[in-house]
Write a structure and sequence with these properties.
four-stranded antiparallel β-sheet; Rossmann fold; six-stranded mixed β-sheet; alpha/beta
Length: about 300
């Protein structure tokens, strides 16, 4: 949005494949664009939670974790917390926790016990889920229908002698379609026919079906419209209010400040700063993110 107002002379608003209106930038503002895009007024970009969901129990702890471009990473996250990760491009990700990349040093403590996932299946069995950054290439099978995508990670649970129980699959998919408010004609619709926001809901539903305790959300609202973003934010709040724990990685600072309880900032593969919600500030985050390796130690 800030780029549109900074660089453009005119703006055209589209919704559901239809042109809504074209205006000169001087004739509009962010609130008007958002309302025109979603077809209704959004009273708050980042919905408030009904209450504090954070408990005193530490669900995940990393101790001097290294690998995949990360070095000496130590942090804790409590049950019911949304812990945000910020940092410049190339600063490192959390694939180590999900077993996508091998760690070279350090420990991961999950639920009070050391874990060392060597594959994503190890992480899933431990109660960890990852919604990846690239939903079309890593998160979903676009030519498979909605119910197939939702139940993809739990096939062993709903199968007997390698034969999927179709009734069980249908029931699970229906449950998540309703709870995630997925807009679709039916569960047999291919996921590539859905909007970006509904594709993301299907991918989140797939991981919720594994009954995880920790959900890693990597760029959870990239490439989806502002109305769908609001729906995803509401889902995140509902998840932590129901006892889930979220690690949220985002390149959008406003998103992290709107949703996270704490933000850890990475620079050159190291933790360069940790900020409590009451101290959130874009300039402070950027100053931590731009620290050199020597400054970040």
């Amino acid at each position: 949005m800030d780029e549109i107002f900074r660089l453009s002379d005119r703006v055209t608003i589209m919704r559901d494949g239809q042109k809504i209106e074209t205006l000169r930038i001087s004739q509009t503002n962010v609130e008007h664009l958002v309302t025109a895009m979603v077809g209704r007024e959004l009273k708050e970009t980042y919905p408030a939670r009904s209450g504090s969901s954070i408990t005193e129990t530490v669900l995940l702890e990393t101790r001097r974790l290294s690998g995949n471009g990360l070095r000496d990473i130590s942090f804790t996250v409590h049950r019911g917390e949304v812990l945000g990760f910020a940092g410049l491009i190339g600063a490192g990700r959390t694939e180590l926790i999900f077993g996508v990349k091998p760690k070279t040093a350090g420990e991961i403590i999950f639920n009070g016990k050391p874990v060392a996932p060597k594959t994503p299946r190890d992480a899933i069995n431990s109660g960890i889920a990852l919604v990846p950054e690239d939903r079309k290439r890593q998160g979903a099978l676009l030519d498979i229908d909605i119910k197939g995508n939702i139940c993809m990670a739990i096939l062993s649970r709903i199968s007997r002698m390698s034969v999927v129980n179709k009734g069980h699959e249908q029931k699970i998919a229906e449950t998540y379609k309703d709870s995630m408010r997925i807009k679709t004609l039916d569960l047999f619709q291919k996921i590539k026919k859905l909007s970006g926001g509904n594709q993301q809901k299907v991918i989140i539903a797939k991981w919720l079906a594994t009954e995880p305790e920790l959900i890693i959300l990597d760029e959870p609202t990239r490439g989806i419209d502002v109305g769908a973003k609001h729906e995803i934010y509401k889902l995140i709040n509902e998840l932590v209010e129901n006892g889930k724990t979220i690690l949220m990685i985002s390149s959008e600072m406003e998103e992290l400040m709107g949703m996270a309880d704490r933000i850890i900032v990475l620079s050159e593969g190291r933790i360069s700063g940790e900020i409590a919600r009451k101290d959130f500030d874009q300039e402070l985050i950027m100053s931590y993110a731009s620290k050199t390796e020597k400054e970040a130690v």
